[in-house]
Design a protein that fits this description.
The complex is a heterodimer of chains A (about 110) and B (about 190). With about 110 residues, chain A is an alpha+beta fold. Chain A contains six helices and three strands, in the order αααβααββα. With about 190 residues, chain B is mainly alpha-helical. The longest helix of chain B has about 30 residues. Classes of the chains: A alpha+beta (about 110), B mainly alpha (about 190).
Chain lengths: ~110, ~190
Protein backbone atom coordinates (compact mmCIF):
# COMPACT_ATOMS: atom_id res chain seq x y z
CA UNK A 1 0.00 0.00 0.00
CA UNK A 2 1.26 3.45 -0.86
CA UNK A 3 2.21 5.50 2.21
CA UNK A 4 0.72 8.96 2.85
CA UNK A 5 3.23 11.83 2.40
CA UNK A 6 3.21 12.51 6.14
CA UNK A 7 4.37 8.95 6.81
CA UNK A 8 7.20 9.45 4.31
CA UNK A 9 8.47 12.30 6.51
CA UNK A 10 9.61 9.80 9.13
CA UNK A 11 12.02 8.24 6.62
CA UNK A 12 13.93 11.51 6.05
CA UNK A 13 17.60 11.47 7.03
CA UNK A 14 17.65 12.89 10.57
CA UNK A 15 21.27 14.02 10.24
CA UNK A 16 20.22 16.42 7.47
CA UNK A 17 16.61 17.14 8.48
CA UNK A 18 17.23 18.58 11.95
CA UNK A 19 16.26 22.32 11.66
CA UNK A 20 19.64 23.69 12.73
CA UNK A 21 21.66 21.26 10.60
CA UNK A 22 19.36 21.82 7.61
CA UNK A 23 19.98 25.58 7.96
CA UNK A 24 23.76 25.02 8.23
CA UNK A 25 23.83 22.78 5.16
CA UNK A 26 21.58 25.17 3.20
CA UNK A 27 23.89 28.10 3.98
CA UNK A 28 26.98 26.08 3.04
CA UNK A 29 25.35 24.96 -0.23
CA UNK A 30 25.09 28.62 -1.25
CA UNK A 31 28.82 29.32 -0.96
CA UNK A 32 32.20 27.64 -1.36
CA UNK A 33 32.99 27.90 2.35
CA UNK A 34 32.03 29.95 5.38
CA UNK A 35 33.67 30.66 8.70
CA UNK A 36 32.27 29.83 12.12
CA UNK A 37 31.24 33.42 12.96
CA UNK A 38 29.31 33.76 9.69
CA UNK A 39 27.31 30.59 10.30
CA UNK A 40 26.64 31.53 13.94
CA UNK A 41 25.42 35.03 12.92
CA UNK A 42 23.34 33.82 9.96
CA UNK A 43 21.64 30.90 11.64
CA UNK A 44 21.43 32.38 15.12
CA UNK A 45 22.98 29.51 17.04
CA UNK A 46 25.19 29.84 20.10
CA UNK A 47 28.84 28.86 19.63
CA UNK A 48 28.41 25.67 21.67
CA UNK A 49 25.29 24.62 19.79
CA UNK A 50 26.83 25.32 16.38
CA UNK A 51 29.97 23.46 17.36
CA UNK A 52 27.92 20.41 18.39
CA UNK A 53 25.98 20.35 15.11
CA UNK A 54 29.14 20.82 13.04
CA UNK A 55 30.76 17.94 14.88
CA UNK A 56 27.83 15.66 13.97
CA UNK A 57 27.93 16.78 10.33
CA UNK A 58 31.69 16.24 10.17
CA UNK A 59 31.38 12.73 11.65
CA UNK A 60 28.66 12.05 9.05
CA UNK A 61 31.10 13.06 6.30
CA UNK A 62 28.94 15.97 5.12
CA UNK A 63 31.28 18.87 5.98
CA UNK A 64 35.00 19.49 6.34
CA UNK A 65 36.29 21.77 9.08
CA UNK A 66 39.63 23.51 8.62
CA UNK A 67 41.27 25.36 11.48
CA UNK A 68 43.85 28.03 10.73
CA UNK A 69 45.06 31.47 11.81
CA UNK A 70 44.19 34.82 10.21
CA UNK A 71 47.12 36.82 11.48
CA UNK A 72 46.99 36.03 15.19
CA UNK A 73 43.27 35.24 15.27
CA UNK A 74 42.15 31.59 15.05
CA UNK A 75 39.77 30.93 12.17
CA UNK A 76 37.50 27.95 11.62
CA UNK A 77 36.42 27.44 8.04
CA UNK A 78 33.65 25.05 7.07
CA UNK A 79 32.75 23.70 3.64
CA UNK A 80 30.54 20.97 2.25
CA UNK A 81 32.12 17.75 1.06
CA UNK A 82 30.95 16.48 -2.36
CA UNK A 83 28.72 13.95 -0.57
CA UNK A 84 27.39 16.76 1.68
CA UNK A 85 26.51 18.85 -1.37
CA UNK A 86 24.82 15.84 -2.91
CA UNK A 87 22.95 15.03 0.33
CA UNK A 88 21.50 18.54 0.73
CA UNK A 89 20.51 18.66 -2.96
CA UNK A 90 18.74 15.31 -2.67
CA UNK A 91 17.09 16.36 0.60
CA UNK A 92 15.67 19.56 -0.89
CA UNK A 93 14.39 17.62 -3.90
CA UNK A 94 12.74 15.10 -1.60
CA UNK A 95 11.14 17.85 0.52
CA UNK A 96 9.77 19.46 -2.63
CA UNK A 97 8.34 16.11 -3.81
CA UNK A 98 6.75 15.58 -0.39
CA UNK A 99 5.29 19.09 -0.44
CA UNK A 100 3.71 18.46 -3.84
CA UNK A 101 2.43 15.05 -2.70
CA UNK A 102 0.93 16.58 0.46
CA UNK A 103 -0.87 19.20 -1.61
CA UNK A 104 -2.38 16.53 -3.85
CA UNK A 105 -3.14 14.13 -0.99
CA UNK A 106 -6.67 13.42 0.24
CA UNK A 107 -7.59 10.98 3.04
CA UNK A 108 -8.95 7.59 2.01
CA UNK A 109 -12.74 7.38 2.47
CA UNK A 110 -13.85 5.49 5.59
CA UNK A 111 -15.48 2.13 4.92
CA UNK A 112 -19.28 2.21 5.26
CA UNK A 113 -20.71 0.25 8.28
CA UNK B 1 10.96 26.89 4.15
CA UNK B 2 10.87 30.64 3.39
CA UNK B 3 13.34 31.14 6.22
CA UNK B 4 15.69 28.62 4.65
CA UNK B 5 15.33 30.29 1.25
CA UNK B 6 16.36 33.55 2.92
CA UNK B 7 19.30 31.78 4.57
CA UNK B 8 20.39 30.50 1.15
CA UNK B 9 19.98 33.95 -0.41
CA UNK B 10 22.03 35.73 2.27
CA UNK B 11 24.83 33.14 2.12
CA UNK B 12 24.83 33.33 -1.67
CA UNK B 13 24.85 37.15 -1.83
CA UNK B 14 26.77 37.97 1.36
CA UNK B 15 29.44 40.06 -0.38
CA UNK B 16 26.78 41.99 -2.34
CA UNK B 17 24.84 42.68 0.85
CA UNK B 18 27.84 44.38 2.47
CA UNK B 19 26.20 47.64 1.49
CA UNK B 20 28.39 50.19 3.27
CA UNK B 21 31.24 49.25 0.93
CA UNK B 22 29.33 51.12 -1.81
CA UNK B 23 28.74 54.26 0.25
CA UNK B 24 32.11 56.01 -0.43
CA UNK B 25 31.51 55.46 -4.16
CA UNK B 26 28.34 57.59 -4.00
CA UNK B 27 30.21 60.68 -2.72
CA UNK B 28 32.02 61.71 -5.97
CA UNK B 29 28.79 61.45 -7.95
CA UNK B 30 26.81 63.49 -5.42
CA UNK B 31 29.57 66.15 -5.30
CA UNK B 32 29.59 66.25 -9.11
CA UNK B 33 25.80 66.64 -9.23
CA UNK B 34 26.03 69.66 -6.87
CA UNK B 35 29.05 71.07 -8.76
CA UNK B 36 27.15 71.01 -12.05
CA UNK B 37 24.62 73.42 -10.58
CA UNK B 38 27.34 76.12 -10.75
CA UNK B 39 27.99 78.32 -13.80
CA UNK B 40 27.09 76.72 -17.17
CA UNK B 41 29.63 74.18 -18.39
CA UNK B 42 31.12 73.57 -14.93
CA UNK B 43 32.18 69.98 -14.40
CA UNK B 44 34.87 68.30 -12.32
CA UNK B 45 38.22 67.40 -13.91
CA UNK B 46 39.13 63.85 -14.84
CA UNK B 47 42.03 64.01 -12.31
CA UNK B 48 39.51 64.78 -9.55
CA UNK B 49 37.32 61.87 -10.70
CA UNK B 50 40.27 59.48 -10.79
CA UNK B 51 41.46 60.49 -7.32
CA UNK B 52 38.03 60.44 -5.69
CA UNK B 53 37.07 57.07 -7.19
CA UNK B 54 40.47 55.67 -6.14
CA UNK B 55 39.88 56.93 -2.60
CA UNK B 56 36.36 55.43 -2.61
CA UNK B 57 37.77 52.02 -3.61
CA UNK B 58 40.47 52.31 -0.93
CA UNK B 59 37.84 53.23 1.68
CA UNK B 60 35.86 50.09 0.89
CA UNK B 61 38.74 47.88 2.14
CA UNK B 62 38.44 48.73 5.88
CA UNK B 63 34.65 48.53 5.53
CA UNK B 64 35.02 44.97 4.23
CA UNK B 65 37.19 44.18 7.26
CA UNK B 66 34.46 45.60 9.52
CA UNK B 67 31.91 43.16 8.03
CA UNK B 68 34.41 40.33 8.41
CA UNK B 69 34.91 41.12 12.09
CA UNK B 70 31.23 41.61 12.78
CA UNK B 71 29.50 38.86 10.80
CA UNK B 72 32.32 36.60 9.60
CA UNK B 73 33.25 35.60 6.08
CA UNK B 74 31.83 33.42 3.34
CA UNK B 75 33.51 32.68 0.02
CA UNK B 76 31.01 33.11 -2.82
CA UNK B 77 30.55 30.42 -5.45
CA UNK B 78 32.76 31.07 -8.46
CA UNK B 79 29.90 32.28 -10.70
CA UNK B 80 28.55 34.57 -7.94
CA UNK B 81 31.57 36.80 -7.31
CA UNK B 82 31.21 40.59 -7.41
CA UNK B 83 33.96 40.90 -10.05
CA UNK B 84 32.11 38.60 -12.45
CA UNK B 85 28.81 40.48 -11.90
CA UNK B 86 30.57 43.80 -12.53
CA UNK B 87 32.20 42.41 -15.69
CA UNK B 88 28.92 41.06 -17.10
CA UNK B 89 27.00 44.28 -16.29
CA UNK B 90 29.76 46.46 -17.83
CA UNK B 91 29.81 44.30 -20.97
CA UNK B 92 26.01 44.57 -21.28
CA UNK B 93 26.13 48.38 -20.81
CA UNK B 94 28.88 48.78 -23.43
CA UNK B 95 26.95 46.59 -25.92
CA UNK B 96 23.71 48.50 -25.32
CA UNK B 97 25.50 51.86 -25.65
CA UNK B 98 26.93 50.68 -28.95
CA UNK B 99 23.51 49.48 -30.15
CA UNK B 100 22.02 52.85 -29.19
CA UNK B 101 24.57 54.63 -31.38
CA UNK B 102 23.79 52.35 -34.33
CA UNK B 103 20.02 52.61 -34.03
CA UNK B 104 18.88 55.56 -31.90
CA UNK B 105 15.92 54.63 -29.67
CA UNK B 106 13.46 56.95 -27.91
CA UNK B 107 14.75 55.70 -24.53
CA UNK B 108 18.32 55.22 -23.29
CA UNK B 109 18.91 51.47 -23.60
CA UNK B 110 21.65 51.29 -20.89
CA UNK B 111 19.42 53.14 -18.37
CA UNK B 112 16.46 50.91 -19.28
CA UNK B 113 18.68 47.82 -18.78
CA UNK B 114 19.82 49.09 -15.36
CA UNK B 115 16.19 49.83 -14.37
CA UNK B 116 15.07 46.30 -15.32
CA UNK B 117 18.05 44.67 -13.58
CA UNK B 118 17.43 46.70 -10.41
CA UNK B 119 13.70 45.92 -10.43
CA UNK B 120 14.53 42.20 -10.76
CA UNK B 121 16.90 42.51 -7.79
CA UNK B 122 14.23 44.32 -5.78
CA UNK B 123 11.65 41.60 -6.43
CA UNK B 124 14.00 38.66 -5.65
CA UNK B 125 13.70 36.65 -2.42
CA UNK B 126 10.28 38.00 -1.42
CA UNK B 127 11.29 41.63 -1.99
CA UNK B 128 14.07 41.32 0.56
CA UNK B 129 15.92 44.20 -1.12
CA UNK B 130 12.84 46.29 -1.97
CA UNK B 131 14.90 49.52 -1.87
CA UNK B 132 16.17 48.59 -5.36
CA UNK B 133 12.62 49.09 -6.65
CA UNK B 134 12.89 52.77 -5.64
CA UNK B 135 16.16 53.14 -7.54
CA UNK B 136 14.59 51.41 -10.56
CA UNK B 137 11.67 53.85 -10.36
CA UNK B 138 14.16 56.77 -10.26
CA UNK B 139 15.80 55.39 -13.44
CA UNK B 140 12.39 55.30 -15.17
CA UNK B 141 11.78 58.93 -14.11
CA UNK B 142 15.20 59.86 -15.49
CA UNK B 143 14.17 58.34 -18.82
CA UNK B 144 11.20 60.74 -18.83
CA UNK B 145 13.42 63.86 -18.65
CA UNK B 146 13.99 64.44 -22.42
CA UNK B 147 10.26 64.36 -23.25
CA UNK B 148 9.75 66.89 -20.44
CA UNK B 149 12.16 69.23 -22.23
CA UNK B 150 15.18 69.01 -19.89
CA UNK B 151 18.39 70.26 -21.53
CA UNK B 152 21.73 68.38 -21.64
CA UNK B 153 23.17 70.20 -18.58
CA UNK B 154 20.16 69.36 -16.41
CA UNK B 155 20.30 65.76 -17.63
CA UNK B 156 24.02 65.48 -16.82
CA UNK B 157 23.53 66.86 -13.29
CA UNK B 158 20.49 64.62 -12.73
CA UNK B 159 22.42 61.59 -14.02
CA UNK B 160 25.23 62.17 -11.49
CA UNK B 161 22.63 62.69 -8.75
CA UNK B 162 20.84 59.51 -9.81
CA UNK B 163 24.05 57.43 -9.71
CA UNK B 164 25.20 58.94 -6.38
CA UNK B 165 21.77 58.79 -4.78
CA UNK B 166 21.17 55.27 -6.12
CA UNK B 167 24.49 54.04 -4.71
CA UNK B 168 23.72 55.65 -1.33
CA UNK B 169 20.21 54.12 -1.16
CA UNK B 170 21.57 50.70 -2.23
CA UNK B 171 24.39 50.93 0.32
CA UNK B 172 22.24 51.86 3.30
CA UNK B 173 19.38 49.56 2.26
CA UNK B 174 21.61 46.49 1.82
CA UNK B 175 23.40 47.20 5.10
CA UNK B 176 20.08 47.41 6.95
CA UNK B 177 18.89 44.14 5.38
CA UNK B 178 22.12 42.35 6.31
CA UNK B 179 22.12 43.73 9.87
CA UNK B 180 18.48 42.72 10.39
CA UNK B 181 19.00 39.20 9.05
CA UNK B 182 22.29 38.53 10.81
CA UNK B 183 21.22 39.70 14.26
CA UNK B 184 17.57 38.62 14.56
CA UNK B 185 17.65 35.03 13.39
CA UNK B 186 17.15 32.13 15.73
CA UNK B 187 16.70 28.53 14.64
CA UNK B 188 14.24 26.53 16.71
Amino acid sequence: MKRAPFEELSSLDRLVHDPARLAILTALAACRSADFLFLASLIGLTKGNLSGHLGKLERGGLVTITKSFKGKVPNTNISLTPSGRDAIRRHWKRLETLRQAAEAWSPAPKPAH
Amino acid sequence: MDDLRQTYYVAEHYRHLQGLRLLPMSVPFLVSAIWRHGPPGSSLSSVWWGMSLGLAIAASIPIRRYYSRRFGDAAALRWRTGALTLLVVTACLVCLGWMQELRPAPVSLPVAFVAIALAKLGLAANRLRAHYLWIAAACVLFEALPPLGANAEVRAATFDGLVGGGLAVAAIGDHRVLRRLMTNRRVA
